[in-house]
Amino acid sequence: MNYSHFQAQKNEIDVVTQVHRETRCFMSWLAMTERSTENMQEIVDEAPITFQYCTDGFSTDDVLNYHQGRHLIEPGKSQTYSIEGGNADLRHYLARLAKRSQCFSRSLQVLKNTIKLFVYCWNRRQLFHCAYPTYSRPLIDFLHPFEF
Question: d(Cα 97, Cα 127) in Å, to the nearest integer?
């Protein structure tokens, strides 16, 4: 499982995600105004326990408790390619995250709800694609039954 973040400059909100390498499903995510050790630990705790976590060596990575999994810190992007792809998908589908100079959300809660909806549909589509690799369906087909 890989995780990384990108920042919405205007409101200074970090969106941190964990992505499963094989399915490219988002295992956990968090939108936060402060990237503290406590907030980062929350995203690790939310994700299912796995055998390996790959990070790019952000300052909090070495103090987090990764439970039973092995933690691999690899500076650069050589082991975080799945999360970089996930971040690209977030930027592609959510216009408010498209470019650093244009990233904004008037409310942290609205951003969280938007990401929650996207992750729900995305994960359902990714699991469908794993089961039926020859069938291609648009993301909107996986919206129902979603509840906030």
Answer: 24
